[in-house]
Design a protein that fits this description.
With about 150 residues, this protein is mainly alpha-helical. About 60% of the residues lie in helices and about 10% in strands. The protein is built from six helices and three strands; from the N terminus they run ααβααββαα. It has a three-stranded antiparallel β-sheet with strand order 1-3-2. It is globular and about 55 Å long.
Length: about 150
């Protein structure tokens, strides 16, 4: 089979399907674990951890949506829910009347602090433990080759 063939080789198909299966299984398991232990879906954890690491614990809504790979409308719905729960607040941009910041609240930071050990233990158990330190370094390099500048698991 040549590189220009329309079909994927067995190796290509195995690599691609493997990535999809592993991603799906990990996201489902980590989401279920966080929801059961902390009533916090993985998508919400992702938003809170992104805000925690941002300067002033705040990010523009558009930047936040891009960083957690949600559509703008999906981010708006998620932020609405997190705001109702008191985990984040909205703050209007003074320099741009159309813009809005999402800001991590103390309640959100506290929930994140209690959920983080659960999430990291799940990441270690379900993914990291399967690889040596060297293999993890190699994997990180391979992911960067595909998507330069991508964020790792947090």
């Amino acid at each position: 089979m040549t590189e220009t063939s329309i079909d994927l080789s067995a190796e290509e198909l195995g690599a691609w399907r493997g990535l999809l299966r592993v991603h799906t299984a990990l996201v489902r398991a980590l989401d279920a674990e966080l929801a059961a232990a902390h009533d916090l879906p993985l998508s919400s954890y992702d938003v809170l951890i992104t805000l925690e690491s941002a300067p002033g614990r705040r990010r523009r809504m558009a930047e936040l949506a891009d960083s957690v790979l949600l559509s703008r409308s999906g981010m708006t719905r998620l932020v609405d829910r997190l705001e109702r729960e008191g985990l984040l607040a909205r703050d209007h941009c003074t320099d741009d009347g159309r813009g809005c910041y999402a800001v991590l609240t103390e309640k959100g930071a506290e929930l994140l602090a209690t959920a983080r050990p659960t999430h990291l233990a799940g990441v270690r158990e379900r993914f990291l433990r399967h690889f040596s330190r060297e293999e993890l370094g190699e994997l990180a390099g391979l992911w960067d080759r595909v998507l330069p500048g991508s964020a790792g698991l947090e």
